[in-house]
Write a structure and sequence with these properties.
Length: about 700
């Protein structure tokens, strides 16, 4: 060190100071005795050479790292004898010795004081904590690589060695978990995929085996769930793709689908004109949806969320529970002796042939010899048959098994579920919503057998959650579809019958129930549909340039049939109300239903259209005067053309109004007399006698008719 100081005093420049610092550190570590304070000595050198703390740490890592690594290997790979001997004929893959699990033999026993020895080595070498952690993690990772060579699952003995190794290296749980995630995640994922087999569903027995496998691979619960869900998503994607494909087939025309896929679909004799692929498309989509939901149900990928009341009840039950027998039984189980299976003798040939794991296409993990692997150490031992009798404590009484709630009941109460995975990100959100919409429509239209209906009900319960559609959006979609289906049915009734009869309400109630529609909303929707139907009829009539009385009567009859009021329920402008009033009044007058004896009915019509009396009187006077003038002109023209029959018809119309309201006509006395003679002759028999009192009244009105012109 003194020599280094002397050299430094001669004005050495960078990077020579770092080189000198490295030389000094190496010399100090090689020559220092146990009592030498290396850290203090090197601090003095660092100060003289003006080396930064960061640079000094880098030099320490370079120089001391290999020394500490060598110390780790020396302590942890050391054994009382030769820990690397091989039994004759027991050579495995890559020349590694194999234990009965078919992998590398466990290393020598780790000294109980290994962690203290390594602590002292790190202190003596002044190893920074991060450097020690990096070296320890790398050593642990390499040992794990040895155990998992060729994606083999290491034994329970090797698992215990890894736990002891992590403790000796003072690795924290997070570091160990990260290493096992990086090294073992693919092994667990492959096991999950193979356990699905051809059905895609993992049975409860194999789920338990997978849990034990995850424990063996030392995967944390969060990591295990993430890997499991990723494996499930990889299996879910093709199922979802088939659903979206069938959606396109059901909603696109044959030409559109062929253009999109590049495949000619041929002719479908059931395809509707205008364009779908017919019955096949919708039926196939329903089948694929049911298969997707069955995949979720079979793998238990959803969980029922308890209601607030259920959570309170469970908490109360837990607080009130007092079963001392169960506690005593649990203590007895914990105190029961554990019987270890005896170690088997080495088999002839040993090595990989002794026992080797195999994951079959059925998803059943097994060992050679047919014994199922359950993840325990005992499952890797040869257990004698029959097994030794072991006295077991009497089991505690089990609580009654709850009866699972039926799908129908869950649907009825609109139960909430949480889903481990869903289709979010696998397809565009609008496509997923279209799948759900098409499913809802299909379920309403389809008539299924009881067995198939059970599966459809299950899909109804879960499809929205599986597709990643929120509960709120699900209700919105169902409401939108419900409005469409409900409206279509009501509109069909209104077009066919003009009303909704009592016998039609049963189906409306069924629609409401199937689509989970609010009753109050349905009442409002029915009212709105009636209003729209009546408004459409009104629009058809009001657009006509000349309003016909029969059209107005048809509108009033339609309103009465629907139970609606033309003024209160329909938005009609004041001008249109006047037009309808005049047309209806004219119809009554000209048909003879309204006469001088019951002319107050005109007032009733006025009130029904909510028209003020003065306005009605003014408009009616104008209308009557105009109508009578036109009738008079028509009668005169008919007489001039010698068409007496036509002249009488015009006079009938004129007199219908004149007997109710006073009118004046533009006639001279001579023309009037001629019209009276023609009209009287038309209403008299051969002997000149007028046929009835009504005709006599009309002749009197014609005689008294006021004139606006005098004879020349």
């Amino acid at each position: 060190v003194d020599h280094v100081v002397e050299l430094a005093g001669e004005g050495l420049s960078y990077p020579m100071p770092l080189n000198l610092y490295e030389v000094a550190l190496t010399d100090q570590l090689q020559t220092a005795d146990v009592d030498t304070d290396v850290a203090s000595a090197m601090a003095a050198v660092r100060a003289v050479l003006k080396v930064s703390e960061q640079s000094a740490t880098a030099v320490y890592t370079k120089v001391c790292g290999p020394l500490f690594r060598a110390r780790v290997e020396d302590v942890l790979l050391r054994s009382a004898g030769d820990g690397n001997e091989q039994e004759d004929g027991e050579e495995g893959a890559e020349g590694q010795p194999m234990d009965l699990a078919g992998g590398a033999a466990p290393g020598p026993a780790i000294p109980p004081d290994a962690s203290e020895i390594l602590d002292e080595a790190a202190r003596t070498l002044n190893i920074p904590d991060q450097v020690r952690s990096d070296i320890s993690e790398e050593f642990y990772r390499q040992r794990l690589d040895t155990f998992t060579l060729g994606s083999r699952i290491y034994s329970a003995t090797e698992q215990e060695e890894l736990k002891a190794l992590s403790a000796a290296l003072r690795l924290d749980d997070a570091s160990v978990a990260t290493i096992h995630w990086n090294q073992c995640a693919s092994m667990y994922r492959n096991a999950v995929l193979e356990a699905m087999g051809s059905t895609g569903v993992i049975t409860q027995e194999y789920l338990a085996g997978l849990d034990k496998l995850a424990d063996r691979l030392m995967l944390e619960d969060e990591a295990k769930s993430k890997i499991f869900n990723e494996a499930m998503q990889s299996q879910m994607r093709p199922l979802l793709d088939r659903v979206t494909t069938e959606l396109e087939r059901s909603v696109l025309s044959r030409q559109q689908y062929a253009a999109k896929t590049g495949q000619d679909q041929g002719d479908d004799m059931f395809a509707e004109a205008g364009g779908t692929l017919g019955l096949e498309g919708g039926a196939n989509m329903m089948l694929e949806i049911v298969n997707l939901v069955d995949f979720f149900a079979g793998n238990k990928l959803f969980t029922l969320v308890p209601t607030e009341e259920e959570e309170k009840a469970a908490a109360a039950a837990a607080a009130a529970a007092d079963v001392p027998e169960v506690a005593e039984s649990a203590k007895a189980v914990e105190a029961a002796p554990v019987v270890e299976a005896p170690e088997p003798a080495a088999e002839a040939g040993g090595g990989q042939a002794a026992k080797k794991q195999s994951w079959g296409m059925s998803g059943s993990p097994s060992w050679a010899g047919g014994a199922p692997w359950d993840g325990s150490a005992a499952s890797e031992q040869v257990t004698p048959y029959p097994p030794p009798a072991v006295a077991a404590p009497a089991p505690a009484p089990l609580p009654p098994v709850p009866v699972p709630e039926s799908t129908a009941s869950l649907l009825e109460r609109n139960a909430i579920f949480s889903y481990q995975i869903d289709a979010t990100g696998m397809a565009k959100s609008n496509i997923l919503e279209d799948v759900y919409k098409q499913f809802v429509v299909q379920t309403f239209q389809e008539k299924a057998s009881p067995a198939k209906q059970e599966r459809i009900d299950l899909a109804t319960l879960h499809l929205a959650g599986i597709l990643g559609i929120s509960r709120e959006r699900k209700e919105e979609i169902r409401g939108e579809i419900g409005d469409v289906v409900y409206s279509q049915y009501v509109n069909n009734l209104l077009q066919q019958k003009g009303t909704v009869e009592p016998s039609d309400f049963q189906l409306l109630v069924n629609i409401q129930s199937m689509l989970k529609m609010d009753e109050e909303h349905c009442v409002e929707l029915l009212y709105d549909l009636k209003i729209k139907h009546l408004a459409h009829t009104l629009d058809t009539v009001r657009r006509r340039e000349e309003l016909r009385a029969e059209d107005v009567l048809r509108v009033r009859a339609a309103a009465d049939k629907l139970g609606l009021d033309l003024v209160d329920d329909v938005d009609i402008s004041p001008d249109d109300r006047v037009r309808f009033f005049l047309a209806e009044a004219a119809s009554g007058i000209e048909s003879g239903k309204i006469t001088d004896e019951n002319k107050e009915e005109v007032g009733d019509i006025q009130e029904s259209w909510a028209i003020a009396t003065d306005v009605a009187q003014e408009k009616l006077d104008e209308f009557v005067q105009k109508t009578c003038s036109a009738a008079t002109s028509g009668a005169v023209e008919a007489v001039m053309s010698a068409n007496n029959r036509r002249a009488v018809a015009h006079l009938d119309k004129l007199l219908s109004y004149a007997q109710i309201l006073p009118v004046e006509v533009d006639l001279d006395a001579r023309t009037k007399e001629r019209l009276i003679k023609i009209y009287s002759a038309a209403k008299a028999d051969f002997d000149g006698t007028v046929r009835n009192d009504e005709d006599r009244k009309r002749i009197d009105v014609l005689v008294r008719l006021g004139l606006t012109s005098q004879a020349a």
